[in-house]
């Protein structure tokens, strides 16, 4: 009697029901609300605001000096004298303004870098959810494959007991089952790793639980409305942050140059000496003989040049990244479209039914049946891999353009 594998019709026809599905938008919103990196960014902004407040204040406070004296006179007797001095340092060369400019640019750069972290969190959680979604699907398929081949293995063993199957058939069924069990174990490990990475991307610190991801339909015809390179150059926050850092270091170079000009201290003194009233006005200025601050100025100019070069290099990198991402996105969308057409023209359930009917009719032996089972599984996995690459290409394109919202715009 032939082995009747009734479970084949179940293979790969899995449509899981997500009772508590996590949508892509919900995951991104959750990460924005609770990710520790964004909390750190807010603290850094607060620190930069404090630095601006500090640098916006004048460098010197007035100084008050009181010096009482008791003097013995040569002719006998004594005199109670005192001196009171009020002095004020005066910055020359525009140092105050340069310090404030540097701190303002640093604050704006910190705010932009906080925006970069926000975009990075959104992109990372999108990638993580996509990875969980597809690893979960593969795990379900691998589990179904193992169950199917386990039943096949038992059936072949029973047939061998009654003399209707050979040892070669048993060996083939056993090897196929072992391979399927190993693949399922690897899929479990990969899925567990992806779930852990998802929780890290979201910023959750609670106990890791199961995730039921849900992805919208990916629109393959979606694309940016204008030149991608121009969009990126005008939208990328890292470029804007580099501009602000360059402004910060330019102001610091101007400050270092201004520091070569010594500051002036003005002092007014009043006092009493042997009964006489004293008044004096003094000016103090250091002479830059031993240290003219030329080294600090050179160092500041070097840092400014570094930031200028970093900005130019980043702009070149962005152009290359956009070109690569746009090409990969177009290639991935064409592949997704091709797979959609193939699955529409030749639905997988027909292939499964055809293989089952052929085996029941005696047209396929056990070896050929195992090959068909594995081919159906690999076909589904490959189709899912193409769709996954489409999602990753869409996410990457949105990332390099500086618009994480494009991830959701190109879906339905």
Automatic annotation (TrEMBL):
Gene3D superfamilies hit by this protein: Outer membrane efflux proteins (OEP)
InterPro entries: MdtP/NodT-like, OMP_efflux
Signal peptide positions (record): 1-21
Keyword terms of this UniProt record: Signal
GO molecular function, a single term: efflux transmembrane transporter activity
Family listed: Belongs to the outer membrane factor (OMF) (TC 1.B.17) family.
PANTHER family reported in the protein's UniProt record: BLR4935 PROTEIN, OUTER MEMBRANE CATION EFFLUX PROTEIN
Protein name, entry field: Outer membrane protein, cobalt-zinc-cadmium efflux system
Source species of the chain: Mariprofundus micogutta
């Amino acid at each position: 009697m032939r082995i009747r594998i009734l479970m084949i019709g179940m293979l790969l026809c899995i449509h899981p029901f997500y009772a508590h599905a996590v949508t892509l938008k919900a995951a991104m919103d959750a990460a924005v609300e609770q990710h520790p990196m964004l909390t750190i960014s807010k603290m850094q902004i607060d620190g930069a605001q404090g630095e601006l407040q500090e640098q916006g204040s004048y460098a010197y406070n007035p100084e008050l000096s009181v010096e009482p004296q008791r003097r013995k006179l040569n002719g006998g007797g004594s005199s109670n004298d005192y001196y009171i001095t009020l002095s004020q340092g005066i910055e020359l060369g525009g140092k105050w303004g340069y310090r404030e400019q540097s701190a303002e640019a640093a604050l704006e750069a910190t705010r932009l870098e906080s925006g970069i972290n926000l975009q990075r969190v959104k992109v990372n959680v999108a990638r993580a959810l996509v990875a969980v979604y597809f690893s979960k699907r593969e795990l379900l398929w691998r589990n179904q494959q193992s169950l199917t081949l386990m039943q096949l293995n038992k059936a072949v063993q029973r047939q061998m007991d009654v003399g209707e199957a050979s040892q070669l058939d048993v060996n083939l069924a056993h090897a196929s089952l072992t391979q399927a069990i190993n693949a399922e174990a690897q899929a479990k490990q990969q899925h567990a790793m992806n779930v852990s990475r998802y929780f890290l991307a979201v910023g959750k610190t609670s106990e890791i639980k199961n995730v039921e991801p849900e992805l919208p339909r990916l629109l393959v015809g979606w694309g940016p409305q204008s030149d991608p390179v121009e969009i990126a150059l005008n939208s990328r926050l890292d470029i804007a942050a580099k501009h602000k850092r360059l402004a910060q270091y330019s102001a610091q170079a101007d400050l270092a140059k201004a520091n070569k000009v010594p500051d002036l201290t003005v002092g007014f003194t009043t006092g009493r000496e042997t009964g006489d009233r004293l008044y004096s006005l003094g000016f103090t200025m250091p002479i830059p003989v031993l240290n003219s601050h030329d080294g600090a100025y050179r160092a500041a100019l070097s840092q400014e040049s570094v930031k200028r070069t970093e900005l130019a290099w980043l702009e070149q990198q962005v152009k290359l990244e956009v070109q690569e991402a746009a090409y990969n996105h177009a290639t991935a969308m064409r592949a997704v479209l091709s797979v959609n057409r193939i699955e529409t023209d030749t639905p997988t359930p027909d292939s499964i039914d055809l293989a089952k009917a052929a085996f029941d009719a005696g047209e396929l032996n056990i070896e050929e049946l195992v090959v068909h089972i594995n081919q159906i599984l690999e076909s589904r996995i490959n189709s899912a891999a193409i769709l996954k690459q489409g999602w990753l290409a869409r996410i990457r394109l949105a990332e390099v353009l500086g618009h994480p919202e494009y991830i959701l715009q190109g879906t339905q």
